[in-house]
Specification:
The complex is a heterotrimer. By secondary structure, chain A is α+β, with helices and mostly antiparallel strands. Chain A is built from two helices and ten strands; from the N terminus they run αβββββββββαβ. In chain A, the strands form two sheets. In chain A, strands 1-3-9-5-7 form a five-stranded antiparallel beta sheet. Chain A starts with a helix and ends with a strand. By secondary structure, chain B is mainly beta. Chain B has two domains: 30 residues; 122 residues, Sandwich (Immunoglobulin-like). Chain C has a single domain, classed as Immunoglobulin-like (Sandwich), CATH 2.60.40. The chains are: A alpha+beta, B mainly beta, C mainly beta. Chains in contact: A-B, A-C, B-C. Strand 10 of chain A pairs antiparallel with strand 1 of chain B, so a sheet runs across the interface.
Chain lengths: 150, 169, 168
C-alpha cells in the first residue's frame, strides 16, 4: 500500500512538471506602483511590460486562458498580450479575484517554431475612492496562464 | 412488472452514460500546461489639490456701495478648488499669508461635489476648516470670496496668498 | 548577520515607499482685495410739494411753508473731508425763495444751516454741509422752506429739481 502511494505521488509530480514545461512566465514577479494623481481627475495608471509568456507548439490549435486569485482585491489590474506573432490576442482582460479562466490568446497554430512568446502588458489603475495600500494593503495577484486545446 | 423495471433501469443507465459523454466533450478541454507568476499592485498615498485660476481680484468701488452704509462688500466666485485624495478622513483647510490685513476677507466653499462645506471663514494666518469629510474622493467646489471694508477705513489694498491644504481630519 | 540587516533595510525602504506621498497636498491662490475711492449720496422722499396759501394782512412777505419729510444718506472713504453742495436745475423767479437745511449726524460734518438756493445752479452750487469725514451717515433730515412775496404775484405750479452733490 505504501509503495502504491509513493508511485501515485511520483506520477503526479511528473505530470505537473510536464504541464509546466509547456508554458511558463519569463521575467519574474512584477511590482507595480501607482504613485501620482491629478486633482479633479484620478490617479495615473501604470503599465508594466517586463514579463513575457513562453509556450510550446502542440499538435492541435490551442489557446491560452488567464485567471487570477487575489483575495481582498481592491484595485484594478488588466493584462493584454502584445508582441504576439502566432495566434490572436484577445481584448484586454480585467483580472479579478475568482474570475473564470478567460481567453487571453486564441488560434495558436500548430506549426513551428517550437516555442512561441508574447509580452505580458499589465496595467494597474486605481481611483481615489479605492484608497491606498498604506491603509488597505497591496493587491497580490497569483495569475495563472493555461495552454489548452481550442 | 419485472420487465417494466428492467426498461426503467436501462433508460436511466443510457441517460447517465450520455451525460458523461457530453461532459467529456464540452467541459474538459485538453490542458497542455499551466504557468504563472505573482503581480503585486501597490497604490501610494496620493493627495492632490489645485485651483482653477491662480489669481482673484476683488475691487470695492462706488458700484458696490449703498449710500449710508459704512460696510462695503464685494464677492467673487469665478474660481474653483479641485482635489483628489485616496486617504480616508481628510479635510481641506485654508489660511492666508497676510498677517495684518487692513480689510476683511471671507471664504466659503460653495456646492462641494463631495464632503461638507464648513461655515464661512474669515481668513487668517491660522489654518481653518474649509471642507470636511472629503476622504477617498475626487471633487471640486466653487470658491466664494467676500471682501469687506468699512468706508471709515479709507482706501487701500490687501494682497493675500491663500493656501489650501488637504489634511487629516 | 549581514544578510539579516540587508533584509530589514529593504523592508524599511519598501514601507517608506508606501507611506510617502509623491503628490502635492497644498495649493495657493493670490487674492488682491482693493478698496478704491467711494463717494455715494442718496436722497429719499420723492416729490415734495410746497404750497403757500396764507399771509398776514399788512405784510408783503407771505407765510412760508416747510417740509422735513425727506432725508439724505452718504458714504465715502476719502482721506480728505468732503462737503455736500446743493443747487437747482433752474433759478426761481424774483420774489420767490427756496431754502434748504441739512442736519448731519454727530461728527459727520457741519451744517451750513438754512441756505438759500433760489439762484444756485450747477456752476454755483452752495455748500450745505462741510467737513464730512470718511464713513457713513444715513437717514439725515432735509428741511425745505419756501418763501414768497405778495408782490411777486401768483406762481403757477412749477417743478424744480434739487441736486445734492458729495464733493471735495
Amino acid at each position: 500500500m505504501r509503495s502504491f502511494a509513493i508511485f501515485v505521488i511520483l506520477c503526479s509530480a511528473g505530470s505537473l512538471t510536464q504541464l509546466r514545461a509547456q508554458i511558463s512566465v519569463q521575467g519574474g514577479n512584477p511590482l507595480m506602483s501607482v504613485t501620482t494623481g491629478t486633482a479633479g481627475a484620478q490617479p495615473v495608471s501604470v503599465t508594466n511590460a517586463a514579463t513575457s509568456l513562453r509556450w510550446r507548439k502542440q499538435n492541435v490549435i490551442t489557446k491560452i486562458t488567464v485567471s487570477t486569485s487575489c483575495p481582498g482585491q481592491r484595485f484594478t489590474l488588466t493584462v493584454l498580450a502584445t508582441n504576439l506573432t502566432y495566434g490572436v490576442a484577445a481584448p484586454q482582460v480585467t483580472l479579478f479575484n475568482g474570475m473564470p479562466a478567460t481567453n487571453f490568446v486564441l488560434n495558436i497554430p500548430t506549426g513551428n517554431p517550437v516555442h512561441k512568446t508574447c509580452t505580458l502588458q499589465y496595467t494597474a489603475s486605481a481611483t481615489f475612492a479605492q484608497g491606498n495600500s498604506a491603509e488597505l494593503g497591496n493587491d497580490v495577484h497569483a495569475i495563472t496562464y493555461t495552454l489548452v486545446a481550442q | 412488472m419485472k420487465n417494466h423495471l428492467h426498461i426503467v433501469v436501462n433508460r436511466v443507465w443510457k441517460t447517465a452514460a450520455m451525460a458523461v459523454l457530453l461532459m467529456n466533450g464540452t467541459a474538459r478541454a485538453q490542458v497542455y500546461g499551466t504557468g504563472g507568476h505573482t503581480v503585486t499592485m501597490q497604490v501610494s498615498v496620493i493627495t492632490s489639490v489645485r485651483v482653477t485660476v491662480g489669481s482673484v481680484n476683488l475691487n470695492i468701488s462706488s458700484a458696490n456701495v449703498v449710500a449710508g452704509q459704512n460696510q462695503m462688500s464685494v464677492t467673487d466666485q469665478s474660481t474653483s478648488l479641485l482635489w483628489g485624495t485616496n486617504s480616508s478622513l481628510r479635510k481641506v483647510s485654508v489660511s492666508t499669508s497676510l498677517a495684518a490685513p487692513k480689510f476683511t476677507l471671507k471664504l466659503l466653499a460653495l456646492n462641494p461635489t463631495v464632503g461638507n462645506a464648513a461655515p464661512q471663514v474669515t481668513l487668517s494666518t491660522s489654518a481653518q476648516d474649509l471642507l470636511l469629510n472629503i476622504g477617498r474622493s475626487s471633487g471640486s467646489c466653487t470658491l466664494l470670496y467676500t471682501g469687506i471694508a468699512l468706508a471709515s477705513q479709507g482706501t487701500g489694498n490687501d494682497v493675500h496668498v491663500i493656501t489650501f491644504t488637504v489634511a487629516a481630519q | 548577520m549581514k544578510k539579516s540587516l540587508s533584509l530589514i533595510l529593504g523592508l524599511s525602504l519598501c514601507a517608506l515607499c508606501v507611506g510617502t506621498s509623491f503628490s502635492q497636498a497644498a495649493a495657493t491662490q493670490t487674492v488682491n482685495l482693493a478698496v478704491n475711492s467711494v463717494q455715494k449720496i442718496a436722497i429719499t422722499g420723492g416729490v415734495i410739494t410746497l404750497t403757500i396759501s396764507n399771509g398776514t394782512a399788512g405784510n408783503n412777505t407771505l407765510t412760508p411753508v416747510s417740509d422735513a419729510t425727506s432725508t439724505y444718506s452718504i458714504t465715502h472713504n476719502s482721506a480728505t473731508p468732503l462737503r455736500i453742495t446743493a443747487n437747482l436745475d433752474a433759478a426761481l423767479a424774483a420774489g420767490y425763495q427756496l431754502q434748504i437745511a441739512l442736519a448731519p449726524g454727530a461728527l459727520m460734518g457741519t451744517s451750513a444751516g438754512t441756505v438759500d438756493i433760489s439762484n444756485a445752479l450747477a456752476a454755483s452750487a452752495v455748500a450745505v454741509v462741510t467737513g464730512i469725514p470718511k464713513g457713513a451717515d444715513a437717514g439725515r433730515t432735509i428741511t425745505y422752506t419756501f418763501n414768497a412775496n405778495a408782490s411777486a404775484g401768483i406762481l403757477t405750479s412749477t417743478a424744480k429739481t434739487v441736486t445734492l452733490t458729495l464733493t471735495n
